[in-house]
Specification:
Number of helices of chain A: 17
Number of strands of chain B: 10
Shape of chain A: elongated
Helix content of chain B: 25-40%
Chains: A alpha+beta, B alpha/beta, C alpha+beta
Strand content of chain B: 25-35%
Shape of chain B: globular
Largest sheet of chain B: 6 strands, mixed
CATH superfamily of chain B: P-loop containing nucleotide triphosphate hydrolases
Oligomer: heterotrimer
CATH class of chain B: Alpha Beta
Strand order of the largest sheet of chain A: 2-3-8-5-7-6
Number of helices of chain B: 7
Largest sheet of chain A: 6 strands, mixed, barrel
Strand content of chain A: 15-25%
Structural class of chain B: alpha/beta
CATH topology of chain B: Rossmann fold
Amino acid sequence: MLVQLAWKNIWRNKVRSGIVIASVALGLWAGSFIMAYAFGMIDQRLKDAIETEISHIQIHHSDYQEDNDPQFAISESPQLIQTLTDHSSVRAVAGRVLVFGMINSPNTSAGAKLIGIDPIVENRLTKLEELITEGEYLNPGDRNKIIIGEKLAKKLKVKLRSKVVLTFQDTNKDIVAGAFRIKGIYKSHNSGIEGLSIYTSGEDLSKLLGDGANYHEMALLVKDTEALEGFQSELHQMYPELTIESWKELSPELSLMIETMDQSLIIFLIIILVALSFGIINTMLMAVLERVREIGMLMAIGMNKPRLFKMIALETIFMVMIAAPVGLLLAYGTITYLGKYGLDLSSIYAEGYAQYGFKSIIYPNLAGEHYLRIMILVLITAVLSSIYPALTALRLDPVTAIRKI
Amino acid sequence: MEKEHHNHGNCVIHTENLTKVYKGVVPVKAVNDVHLHIEKGEFTALVGPSGSGKTTLLNLIGGLDTPSSGKVWIHDQDITQLSKNKMIDFRLQNIGFVFQAYNLVPVLTAKENIEFVMLLQKVPQAQRDQRVHQLLGEVGLLEQINKKPSKLSGGQQQRVAVARALASKPQFVLADEPTANLDSKTAENLLDIMLKLNQDEGVTFIFSTHDQRVIDRARRVITLVDGAIASDERKEVVMEAL
Amino acid sequence: MMILKLAWRNLWRNRKRTFITSASVVFAVLLAIFLNSLKEGILQKMQENVVSFYSGAIQLHQDGYWDDQTINNTFEVSETLSKKMVEHENVTSVIPRLESFALTASEEKARGSLIISIDPSKERLITRIDQKIVAGEFINENDQAALITIGLANYLELDVKDTIVIIGQGYHGASAAGKYPIKGIIDFASPQLNKSMVYLPLKEGQWLFGATNRLSALVIQVNNINRSEETAAELDKLVENEYEVLDWSTLLPELDQIIEGERAENVIFLFVLYLLISFGIFGTILMMTIERKFEFGVLVAIGMKKLKLSSVVVLENIFVSLMGAFVGTLLSIPLVGYFNAYPIRVTGELKEAYENYGFDPVFYFSIEPKIFYSQTLVVLIIALVLSIYPMLKINRLDAVNAMRD
């Protein structure tokens, strides 16, 4: 009977109930959307970092990273590359010849990281070709061509087709130099890379280094990110002499960012819930104050406090039950739409983006379990928020309440 | 309620030294040392000018308000000793109320409003249905059974309120200015229904009013002046045909 | 005047309503300030951590040093120069440094390292490098000893009291070679920082590199890191053209890029919060308008012009919003102040990640005055824009209908 009464009561003041329902729906939407947005953001950054830069796993000679000395190449690289390429867990793999040296333009010189690549294989891994803003990407068979970052090009005051000289130590510690022509200029979202890395043909670089066909670095993407750790330890067992690191070890900044996001997300969700509960308390309090006379009458004719409390709590719960599907549907719609077409941040915050020109489109996404989690949180908040207004109703004195009749 | 201890015989309401003082800059004695004794089956009007303490006295008897001093017995229960929440349950079982307005739950139909108190009392379905029909028949509103209060006239609403007050089978019904918002014809009509219930079924009514036609129908008229009983008369009333 | 009086009295006539409406504004202001303070606090702390570690907020160099960081681009110590810097109100202190790359070696191994010559007593006070010592002791001004980072120590297989050899190029091509006992080992927690750094007392470093009385940088510490850019520009005007003054966003563009990216992402969080806040306030205003329909009807019926009535209601809203904004800002000061003094401690993986970087594992709250007034202003504007609703409602009001209920 209280159930029916509560249900009927919520349709009495449609505007008021509408406000509560809309607040809860909006709260649900906000919670889900922000979560989806944060996940989208993390995904985007991971994608930026993993799919264009560090990859899931990098393999080096165990001494290479300590020293960056080109003599520490991965022995029998071609066989290893073949094994990895054939491995069922691997999506793409590329080997790189690395050497640190100097790049000299007629004007000035700068330190540089020379990366010798197989253009086709590398592009499969890091989509390097997409970063080219001027000129062209490398072709297999290109001789003495390089692509360099916009930042480095500016520093060296060189343009497309300029000639530059690269000098470095070969594996015998002799200084070697080679003349190269700039075939393309790229722009990276990571300005550190843009100012340092130069890509050229792996064959060219190997020849200059005098080190056969071995790579210093192999980077690979796995098919299933969930299985990354298992795959990593599998590789560890197969090649105990190599250093095999996942992106988490390669880029602790990235995990710092993700963890920061996770925890600040929790705080933001709490803020949303607090805002929501305040809205509910406010409106339900008004609902109680508006019905002082009726509540007084109910108390006079024998409705006791537990029942009164139950009635008002039920009213809130019903409204929340109506709001929940509305809010979730709204959230689902927004997230699915933006998940497909993306949310372009550069239109909202042009300043920062114009300066650095990094990727700014975020694709929100949210797994089903999170919708459920948000819904439970919102339900609990709504029910808790109805306690104070209900208690206010209980504190009403029937005489005072009726005196207003 | 332990009805076997009938210390006062047929007594339903008994008050002693009942006083209610409203604190303020100048304290007001709204009810002043009232001794009242009401027997089962009485049909009593509380009259007096506005501010004479009629409503306060009814509230004290109905357990809606607590006295500053004095006692109120309903049968052998001293209701001034009950906690607020116990009092609500006591009202549910023993007292029926009819107010000047806002008697009915707006979202419930006439039937549901009457059924409501019985639901609170956990009366089984079959009995409820039977009693709703009986009561609505007695107040002449069987045709309006499924209408909501907003679809009923003021007089009809008050008749539903009377039926609702009786639904819980109370010891007595308190009615505070039940006719104040009604025109005189409708008011008389309501009083006739109340009087008939009193005569046929022995329902005890106590109501406050300042409407002379209503006073004329009362069997006992208690006049309050400045919170104290100024006169207490009993008379015979001839009932007009409905 | 009449309108003002009427609006003011209306507020006090229905105190409960006034209270509820302004409470919704109070709460909105509180939440907006809280969220902003947290978001800015996290970023600011990150910025401070990184900046104080790597570069300091501002650096003064010989003009051209930043593009070509060689020992030849150093400048002579000048007391007047330091004084000029310190006189700026935002500058707290100036630390001299001489930096140069050189080869560092033990008997078996060698590695290129950054040799940083410091003023030990100033660093102890300001950058507190001494607290990162994990073995041995910090250096003193007149020591002929070195501090090395733990990664370098491991690589060279050196420990405290062993000898490290430094070989490099000194000022104007002079050769620089020295042997130093290792007095202490530093652990910066970040593998990158730990890899190859050596600290020498300033005098010793200047002697080693044949750069007597010369510095590569004056590291300038400031009160308010957010004003680094303008402070750098002001300092740049103070000094002669032979110097350059750069702020951290030039010195550490990657950090600036990350922070600007975070700010952009925060815009969405704020947007969602504002949406919730707007709705909360709107709900209250809507209820208020409906509740007062009868009153409005009466006023129009007795001949009050609708425009005048609207003005009264808008004025009421202005009062209520101002009151709410004022109280909200006032309340936010102890709230944010508390969290500023006792920041939220983070847990789990994030705690580890922060500690790996040598940061305090806490979320700081910023108490920048800008946060307080900007957020208060935003909420105030929201509240005022929303008060258009009762205006529209009054404009369409039909007096007879309004009074019917």
